[in-house]
Specification:
α5 runs antiparallel to α6, α10 crosses α12 and α11 crosses α12. The chain is globular. It has a three-stranded antiparallel β-sheet, with no helix packed on it. It starts with a helix and ends with a helix. By secondary structure, the chain is mainly alpha-helical. It folds into two domains: 70 residues, DNA polymerase, domain 1 (Orthogonal Bundle), CATH 1.10.150; 178 residues, hpI Integrase, Chain A (Orthogonal Bundle), CATH 1.10.443.
Length: 296
């Protein structure tokens, strides 16, 4: 990640004085990067972190990266997936997947996939969770950080936009029960290896079996691919579970604004894209039902 920072960002900013960098210049850089790389969102976040530090150190008065936007190709706004390219699961597939997870996975991984599906959170947000982020009495979970990993190790970064920093409801008791079960098992593991304190509010939810190091960011992807192959499921990605959550919310009657806030979308167009996909699928099902009815 450090090498990407040096290769993709420093050529644009390295020779400039910090105080001379403007928002319009930052936007031009973002526009250029968006045409070349898929990780422009990450690069924007890293640059913003540097500027935030400069503000903290009183080198600058403001963060010029704030207010910049990532341009999207027209096809990203308008494309509606076919059944072959569909990037989410429907209700029946989710039930099949969760049944497989319950049979094949550890309690830790059961909770990981449950949260990805039931909250619609991003992978990095889920892996950055700490026990203090859950309020069992209020039945809420706080997503305000994302996990960052490089050669030096792991750290939690504050989520890049205000919309991403959100507290969402956990209306189902099953999620809270899985969280409680996971914390109990983690306390037992720590006590078994000599810990005198058990789990603390600042400890991570999802750690490796042999220590308290967070799971690597690629782990959920690898585990999902393994389960899809083993159970012959329609291939999707970890990020598609977020899309799946949104799709099921729409089917359950949630408004576009409610889904936008729950997923932490700063741009409502992202939420609208999912809504378009869901309504198109619903229309196709209605037409199919009508055709079958006439054939009776």
């Amino acid at each position: 990640m450090v090498s990407k920072f040096r290769r993709q960002l420093l050529p644009h900013f390295g020779k400039l004085k910090m105080k001379d960098i403007t928002r319009s210049y930052c936007q031009k850089v973002i526009n250029k990067l968006a045409k070349k790389i898929k990780t422009v969102d990450n690069m924007r976040m890293y640059a913003s972190q540097v500027f935030e530090y400069a503000v903290k150190m009183e080198i600058r008065a403001t963060n010029p990266m704030k207010g910049t936007t990532i341009p999207k190709a027209e096809k990203e706004h308008l494309a509606v997936p076919t059944s072959e390219s569909r990037n989410y699961w429907e209700k029946a597939k989710i039930k099949k997947f969760l049944a497989a997870v319950k049979r094949d996975c550890t309690p830790r991984d059961q909770l990981m996939f449950h949260l990805l599906i039931y909250t619609g959170a991003r992978k990095g947000e889920v892996l950055a969770l700490r026990w203090g982020d859950v309020d069992a009495k209020a039945k809420t979970i706080n997503f305000s950080k994302t996990l960052f990993q490089d050669k030096s190790g792991f750290t939690s970064l504050t989520s890049k936009t205000a919309a991403s920093r959100r507290i969402i409801s956990l209306d189902d008791n099953k999620t809270l029960a899985l969280i409680k079960k996971r914390r109990t098992s983690e306390k037992e593991r720590l006590l078994a290896i000599g810990s005198t304190t058990g789990t603390q509010d600042n400890d991570y939810f999802f750690t490796r079996e042999d220590d308290s190091t967070p799971l690597r960011l690629a782990y959920p992807n690898d585990k999902l691919a393994e389960l899809i192959k083993a159970h012959n499921l329609h291939t999707i990605t970890i990020h598609s579970l977020r899309h799946t959550h949104a799709s099921l919310l729409f089917e359950a009657g949630a408004s576009i604004k409610e889904v936008q806030e729950r997923l932490g979308h700063s741009d409502i167009q992202m939420t609208m894209n999912i809504y378009t996909h869901v309504t198109k699928a619903a229309k196709e099902k209605a037409a199919d039902r009508f055709e079958k009815f006439l054939e009776l």
